[in-house]
Amino acid sequence: MPKMLKSIVIWAITLEAKLILRKYRPRVIAVTGSVGKTSAKDAIYSVFSQFFFVRKSEKSFNSEIGLPLTIIGAPNGWHNPFVWFANLLKGLFLIAFRTNYPKWLVLEIGADRPGDIEKISKWLVSDMAVITRLAKVPVHVEFFASPEAVVAEKSKILNTLKDGGILILNADDEDVLTLKESYRGEAFGVGFIKGASLRASHYKINYAKRDGQKIPQGITFKVDHESNSLPVDFDGSLGRQHVYPLLFALAAAKLQNVNLVDAALALRRHHGPNGRMKLISGIKGSVIIDDTYNSSPVAVEEALQTLKDIETGGKKAAILGDMLELGKYSTEEHKKAGALAAQVCQLLITVGVRARDIALGALSAGMDEKNIFQYETAADANREMDNLIKEKDAILVKGSQGIRLEKVVEEIMAEPARAKELLARQDNEWKNR
Predict the structure, then answer these.
(1) Are both 259 and 288 inside the same structural domain?
(2) How far apart are CA 414 and CA 251, in angstroms?
(3) Within this chain, do residues 149 and 37 fall inside the same structural domain, yes or no?
(4) Helix or strand or coil: residue 153?
(5) Contact 293, 277 (CB under 8 A)
(6) Burial category of 357 from C-beta neighbours within 10 Å (exposed 0-12, middle 13-18, buried 19 and up)
(7) DSSP 89-133
(8) Same domain membership, residue 217 and residue 74
(9) CB 129 within 8 A of CB 155
(10) Listed residues 232, 267, 302: the one ending a domain
């Protein structure tokens, strides 16, 4: 879309979004952070949809385009002018006529550039704001003066909160807690730390037996609140990082007077987003941990820790792609990822130019060169996958969106015919890129 036309479209749909909010007055939950926004938004929606009429941001609709589209309830038109025209008409219809509009909106709000959240905070009013996690070297830091500038931009989410609004935050993250100090309203902390309003404990990985082999199938943990404790099971995905979205969902529900037991039961219907630590059966009886949606230093660290924690009958392998938009921090952070991988994996496969530094980091940390394989693209790596993957291996696959490592997962998954159902970026716009 030409730049001038894009500016006009953004202005028009934003104006429509403002008028729709003014007319229908839905209650709003605004979700931001450097890691885990989409997972938190989806978990909150899964619970709220059992008790309220609610709409969420689709996929990662968290930008100056995605946010108004969510409020209108319209799809991304990409490069199709007819879709954009239909979107504008839908917005006008909502403004002109009274319809059955959602009572709640769960909105994911990102910050790709300085000023992104600040601009949104000037017209969006939220009832609850959720801050997931703020990384020391966050994704998109390339476009900010420093990591601290990213945190400062994320803090603008507080400006959306109405009088009496509630801040729900990650009590395990020191940077998030600093934002709490600047908010004078009610704050509700979740996490593993003692003193959290909603505290997780007894986290462990669940396994099932298949052909005499233990196969990871999900996670379980307990939620403690006041004098009560209840178990929560989450199948299909791995990692302590998945505990936080579930805690955010439970906290938001509780703050709307939903019984915690009922909220936990609602979570049984929740399935995490594709490409975020999803468990997929692989070739040769292997297990794939598909974390291909995106990548950042903190997310790589968490994913590798999960790979370290699981039990497997074969070797542990990591297929790691470039982490994009890290700017001057790129080389150092890729080398750190390689050093971590060397402590966890028996096989390391890197994909992308920047990921060469992952290989260097692993070599420097003592990993044998014969166990490191480097490729420029996902297509290059795919030509070798059948030779590299062995019986009962556990394989972590992770990289930034632009590296398209979901193509590698499709190559090594046991049921490639289910790719559209199980993998990230399977719509036609992405498939044609």
Answers:
(1) no
(2) 37
(3) yes
(4) helix
(5) no
(6) buried
(7) HHHHHHHHS-----SEEEEE---SSTTHHHHHHTT--EEEEEE--
(8) yes
(9) no
(10) 267
pTM: 0.92
Closest CA to 341 of 324, 365, 322, 323: 365
Tokens matching residue 237: 């995905």
- Domain extent, residue 222, equals 3-267
The tens digit of pLDDT for each residue in 88-108 reads 999 999 999 999 999 999 999
Q: Report the alpha-carbon distance of residue 345 to residue 395 in Å, rounded.
A: 9
Length of the chain: 433
The closest alpha carbon to 131, from 183, 195, 209, belongs to 183
Amino acid at 309: D
Report the alpha-carbon angle 237-169-304, nearest 5.
35
Question: Radius of gyration over alpha carbons of the chain, in Å?
Answer: 22
- Distance from the first to the final alpha carbon of the chain: 16
Q: Which DSSP string do the residues of 345-413 spell out, in sequence order?
A: -SEEEEESSTTHHHHHHHHHTT--GGGEEEESSHHHHHTTHHHH--TT-EEEEE--GGG-THHHHHHHB
Short-list 428, 387, 391, CA closest to 411:
387
Residue pLDDT, tens place only, 276-324: 999 999 999 999 999 999 999 999 999 999 999 999 999 999 999 999 9
- Cα–Cα distances (Å) from 89 to 62, 73, 85, 86, 100, in that order, read 22, 12, 6, 5, 17
Residues 161 and 302 in one domain: no
DSSP string covering 297-336, please? HHHHHHHHHHHHHS--SS-EEEEEE---S-GGGHHHHHHH
| pLDDT digit string, tens, across residues 321-363 | 999 999 999 999 999 999 999 999 999 999 999 999 999 999 9
Please say which residue of 203, 237, 267 terminates a domain.
Answer: 267
Together in a domain, 230 and 303? no
